[in-house]
Design a protein that fits this description.
Layout (H helix, E strand, L loop, with lengths): L3 E3 L6 E3 L1 E4 L8 H13 L4 E3 L7 H12 L4 E6 L4 H15 L4 E6 L5 H8 L4 H10 L3 E7 L3 H9 L5 E5 L11 H7 L3 E5 L19 H9 L6 E5 L3 H12 L6 H11 L22 H13 L4 H9 L13 H5 L6 H12 L4
Helix pairs in contact: 1-2, 2-3, 3-5, 8-9, 11-12, 11-14
């Protein structure tokens, strides 16, 4: 038996490890079916997908037509209007081969514009509430990467669940968001517990992070109800289940060791030696370089990257390409090129 946790006000006893549907896009139809069957056979009772995940819904649906009653099924809409959202739901139900989903989520509410699409009069939330009245979904959730916006949405009490990031490198959702969700009895689901495997591709010579360490860190947090295991191969879901069954909390020393290693971004990065902190235009070069490297390793954190950059007074577009920073860099980083790329990436609106 797998450990279960109460999913907030839904009162559903969800297995603490759920199946995430994104990697199924890259799996063949027969292999995807086997992965979903295997997850259910192992006792997993929470499956998550989205209309935006290519053919993931259709692949899951091939299993749901026979095993629908064995799981809590969640999907999402990225639609910007009530009409399009309801059309999305009908498509999702058809692809998933079911009459209803347990949880219908507002996908990636990470910008103020997206927030307004969901919350405005006649918006996507109204579509979800109508779907619930009609029995096409039981609960309404929200997902995203922008912590302040997600907290605003939790506080409305319109949403039964929240899906956010939590892992060895990105764990600030535990600071305020999860306690607020707990206060409002909103179920907490986390994505990217292994950060897409980046922890296991750390450069040679660094602390070795095992899947067990990454999973143990996530499962230690009692405010998390479900952690989604993305599985492209059967071994991925078997590994996640094994980690749940043999969970062992990390020691304080292990936490420090693994979180430090997880936040290491490789060799071709700014070491924050600050030798370049002499820009005649007043650009905080070290700060932008570290932000740039963090964004390369953890691109899903883009709302934080953009917000941090936009708070900088002297941005990278002030660079006159005098070359002083590159001459000062002991690691020969192409700083001027990086400044241009950083400004292009981070100047986009939130």
């Amino acid at each position: 038996m797998l450990n279960t946790r109460r999913l907030g006000r839904t009162n559903f006893e969800a297995t603490e490890v759920g199946l995430g549907g994104i990697p199924l896009i890259r799996a063949s139809v027969p292999k995807a079916e086997k992965i979903v069957h295997r997850a259910l056979d192992l006792g997993i009772n929470y499956i998550d997908t989205a209309r935006a995940y290519g053919n993931s819904e259709a692949k899951i649906g091939r299993v749901m037509r026979r095993r629908r009653d064995e799981c809590f099924l969640a999907t999402k809409t990225a639609a910007g209007t009530k009409k399009k959202a309801l059309e999305d739901l009908e498509t999702s139900l058809k692809e998933l081969q079911t009459d209803y989903v347990d949880l219908w989520q507002m996908h990636d509410v990470s910008t103020r514009a997206r927030f307004d699409q969901v919350m405005k009069r006649g918006g996507v939330l109204e579509a979800a509430r109508r779907a619930r009245r009609e029995g096409k979904c039981k609960y309404i959730g929200v997902t995203g990467h922008n912590i302040p916006l997600l907290m605003e949405l939790i506080a409305t009490d319109y949403f039964d669940t929240v899906l956010c990031v939590y892992n060895l490198a990105i764990d600030d959702t535990a600071d305020e968001l999860m306690p607020l969700a707990d206060e409002h009895d909103v179920g907490v689901i986390v994505m990217k517990p292994l950060s897409g495997g980046i922890f296991f591709r750390l450069t040679k010579g660094r602390t070795k992070i095992t899947p067990e360490a990454a999973w143990n860190y996530v499962l230690m947090n009692e405010r998390i109800d479900v952690a989604l295991a993305g599985a492209r191969w059967i071994k991925d879901i078997e590994q996640a289940v094994r980690c749940s069954r043999h969970f062992k909390p990390l020691t304080a020393r292990q936490i420090e060791k693994y979180t430090t290693a997880a936040r290491a971004l490789g060799e071709d990065v700014c070491r924050n030696c600050r030798y370049c902190d002499n820009c005649p235009e007043g650009i905080p070069v070290p700060q932008i370089m570290q932000l740039f490297d963090h964004a390369r390793a953890f691109p899903y954190e883009w709302p934080k990257h953009r917000a941090a950059y936009q708070a900088i007074e002297n941005k990278a577009d002030l660079c006159q390409e005098c070359g002083a920073c590159e001459k000062a860099c002991p690691f020969n980083l192409p700083i001027m090129q990086r400044l241009k790329q950083a400004h292009q990436r981070f100047s986009q609106p939130l």
